[in-house]
Predict the structure.
Amino acid sequence: MSEPDRTPPLLEAQHLGKLYRVGGWLRPKNLRALHDASFTLDHREILALVGESGSGKSTIARLCVRLEAPTSGRILLSGRDVLDEERGRATLAYRRRVQMIFQDPFGSLNPARTIGQHLERPLLLHGKAKAGADLTTRVHALLDTVGLVPAPEVAAKYPQELSGGQRQRVAIARALAVEPDLILADEPVSMLDVSIRADILNLMLDLKEKRGISFLYITHDLASARYVADRMMVMYAGHIVESGPSEALLQKPLHPYTKLLLSAIPDLEGSFARGLPARSGAPALVDPPPGCPFAARCPDVTEACRRETPRPVTRDEGRVVRCHLYPEPSRARSE
Amino acid sequence: MGSAPLLSVEDLVVVYQTPSGPVRAVDRVSFVLERGEVLGLVGESGSGKSTVAQALARILAPPAMITGGRVLFEGHDVLAMNEDELRRFRWRKMSFVLQSAMNALSPVLTIGDQIIDVLVTHERTSKRIARERAAHLLELVGIDPARLTSHPHELSGGMRQRVGIALALALDPPLVVMDEPTTALDVVVQHEVLSKIAELKEKLGLSVLFITHDMSVVSQFATRIGVLYAGRLVEMAPTRELFRAPRHPYTAGLLGSFVSIHGPRRRLAGIPGSPPDLRRLPTGCAFRARCREAAARCATEAPALRVIAEDHHTACHLVSP
């Protein structure tokens, strides 16, 4: 894609696709979880991946953290094809650079281990500290970083003694232990109380600013994406339908689905009048019909939309949209 | 129409018996809901908001117990009703849409049969008339009446939730209590369900007690909002006034924690700390550990809810009328 200088982006996805086989061997069907997803993520950047359930956003996360292999496409980390080098699951070297935190801060911690023990393990495994005083110092430093103080006291506690927000901080501290370049955060605040979410979002911003850590922030919540993300991608039915700088994208959404999503968000000062006309309904992911996946619901649908899947079109200000309303440059010229 | 308010909750107390002693999940909560009103009850986890809903529905089971207070519906004491009276009261006078309503439907019956079942049992109507009513109810919540023959698993989550609302409206109750009716739904579907509720309020003159953790969800159609914290009502005011001039530091903090999709981008403050453990509530004000303005008095004396402006109540020592 765009390469203004010679430094490759931190993470680059090229035409990623993921099909799941469903329906048994007698009548096998394909569930298209992800289709032709391409994007880049730079150093010191927060990229939000926004979509509703089933849109494929978690599939992207699972592919990028290498829990699963894509059906097609490439994943480049600092310009190197990681799938080419090692098929199968991620190696230690990959996990040292790319970490993941999950939605459920309750499920990802072991109730039988202290917070300190949770952090010691990755430090030792990745050779970031030696057992002894060094290890304790490092554990305390990590807890300090995520604002869990006094650190010695917190280190001695068990997960069940902490609140949801504190547990999510532990999960972030554990991800930070290996000093990663990139953290994939899958709905990290959606299970937390509203009053606590701000702290976690602010922590992500601080880690980006002060430590240069990049985040792929996966969420269904456009408002929080706007708050933390430099750029965002909107997903629908396994397609990245639109991407661009957060503020520009929200001020002037291009794709009809983004417009619908924006109009549906309740706001403290909002009113129902903003609701847009659009048909409800879930897209067909299993053996999907040809054309744009949003065609069945789109208020601006045309004949072409039902025939042909639109390709990503690059526009001004680093914006990309995947919609027949925005013709590809070559075609525009011939018209 | 009597002069008694539609719903009046007076000093409601709900206690959970735990191994480490009784825990007050709802502590002397009082509010009034007038006819045609949508009252929002907002709170985070542990605020007692769902316990209030369950107490009103009288579906609380041990270890939870209502240990004090009254719930008056048009002046009649709901808590004093026996099983028989309760059966006649629920659905007909006050019905419920709970968070899991979409999973509360029977998987083996068609949705038509489930609605008809409610109508036939409670109103002794003929099956034919009940079927017509059921079709009408589905239309009301924006579902094609052809879906009467569908089973719940054939419907999306949003449609099942709307069936739950249709069921709650089946006997034309004047009041519906909704506990997080849209929390499990995607934002576009949530918008559809909320629009539908707002429309029904206008069309049927329905009164709604709307319980949620998300202030933005009720902001658009609640006439008044009550804010719960650690089992107590800490503020209650008309919606616009609450957003414009929140008086309780917790309400202000909560409003400051919301990221907005519109307007200027500002640094979120959030609220330091986390909601208190109800088993180990501090003395005095339950919010004081997280309050930036806490004074000495806040540690010794629990603030009572009092009037600070017209129709505006706050439980905070630092607020003067």
Q: What stands out?
A: Residues 11-112+158-334 of chain A form a domain with the Rossmann fold fold (CATH 3.40.50.300). The mean pLDDT of chain A is 88.
